[in-house]
């Protein structure tokens, strides 16, 4: 079963607006990762946030982590058409397995 | 070189064919992975290799046979597949498996789009 659940499943916004995606997970974690996938392509690692971190920034990306609520959010500011993709959170399950959430399909309209 | 390459990009095969998917990385990573991804779904783990030894098999049918000839190469041999096996097959690598800090980031190849007729 997939540990991460994301919402919304799909998000459509205008270019220049901010996009926020949320991820919830079920068990305790050491870290949580976010990946991007352009249509039909491989995944690209965006950012990793450790369990002792509450917020992390990378360029236009801002990730928050609330371990008490077992949730994380990914904020993309000043969105661009090139940000159109699916976004997945991922957490560790068991000894060596990375499990992906269901993903959010983000569409940036020009 | 921070790239994972996969060949072929597309593959169409019949249910009686034997084919292989190939994956290569030159980042010195010692963990390599095969994932299967259906449309509009997240990747699902199939196999994990650590130091060229099979570490995890997620109860994958035997018609999928992984092989790790050396630390840079990972193959997935396909035989007698079913139409429902049609999917995007992704290879990934990472520095190692999970440690005290948890899972490290994985580097993905572009995938092989497999169609089984």
Tell me what the structure shows:
The complex is a heterodimer of chains A (110) and B (117). Chain A is mainly beta and 110 residues long. In chain A, 0% of the residues lie in helices and 58% in strands. Chain A has no helices and eleven strands. The model of chain A has no long low-confidence stretch (mean pLDDT 92). Helices cover 0% and strands 55% of the residues of chain B. Chain B has strands spanning 4-7, 10-13, 18-25, 31-37, 44-50, 53-57, 64-70, 73-79, 87-94, 107-108, 112-116. In chain B, strand 4 (31-37) and strand 5 form a beta hairpin. Chain B is globular, with a radius of gyration of 14 Å. Chain A binds chain B through residues 2, 29-31, 33, 35, 40-45, 48, 50-51, 88, 90-92, 95-103, 105, and chain B through 4, 6, 40-43, 45, 48, 50, 55-56, 58, 88, 90, 92, 97-98, 100-103, 105-111, 113.
List the SSEs and their pairings.
The complex is a heterodimer of chains A (110) and B (117).
Chain A: E1 5-7, E2 10-14, E3 19-24, E4 31-37, E5 43-50, E6 55-58, E7 61-66, E8 71-76, E9 85-93, E10 97-100, E11 104-109
Parallel strand pairs in A: 2-11
Antiparallel strand pairs in A: 1-3, 3-8, 4-5, 4-9, 6-7, 7-8, 9-10, 9-11
Chain B: E1 4-7, E2 10-13, E3 18-25, E4 31-37, E5 44-50, E6 53-57, E7 64-70, E8 73-79, E9 87-94, E10 107-108, E11 112-116
Parallel strand pairs in B: 2-11
Antiparallel strand pairs in B: 1-3, 3-8, 4-5, 4-9, 5-6, 7-8, 9-10, 9-11
């Amino acid at each position: 079963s997939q540990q991460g659940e994301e919402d919304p499943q799909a998000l459509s916004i205008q270019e220049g607006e901010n996009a926020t995606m949320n991820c919830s997970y079920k068990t305790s974690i050491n870290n949580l990762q976010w990946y991007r996938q352009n249509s039909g392509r491989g995944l690209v690692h965006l950012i990793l946030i450790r369990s002792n971190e509450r917020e992390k920034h990378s360029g236009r990306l801002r990730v928050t982590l609330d371990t008490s609520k077992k949730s994380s959010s990914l904020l993309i500011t000043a969105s661009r058409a090139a940000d159109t993709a699916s976004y997945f959170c991922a957490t560790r399950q068991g000894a060596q397995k990375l499990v992906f959430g269901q993903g959010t399909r983000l569409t940036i309209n020009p | 070189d921070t790239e994972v390459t996969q060949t072929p990009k597309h593959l169409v095969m019949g249910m009686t064919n034997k084919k292989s998917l190939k994956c290569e990385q030159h980042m010195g990573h010692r963990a390599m992975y095969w994932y299967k991804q259906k449309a509009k779904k997240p990747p699902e783990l199939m196999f994990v290799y650590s130091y060229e030894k099979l570490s995890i098999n997620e109860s994958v049918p035997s018609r999928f046979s992984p092989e790790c000839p050396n630390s840079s190469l990972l193959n997935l041999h396909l035989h007698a597949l079913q139409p429902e096996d049609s999917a995007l097959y992704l290879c990934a690598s990472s520095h190692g498996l999970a440690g005290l800090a948890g899972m490290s980031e994985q580097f993905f190849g572009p995938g092989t789009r497999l169609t089984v007729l």
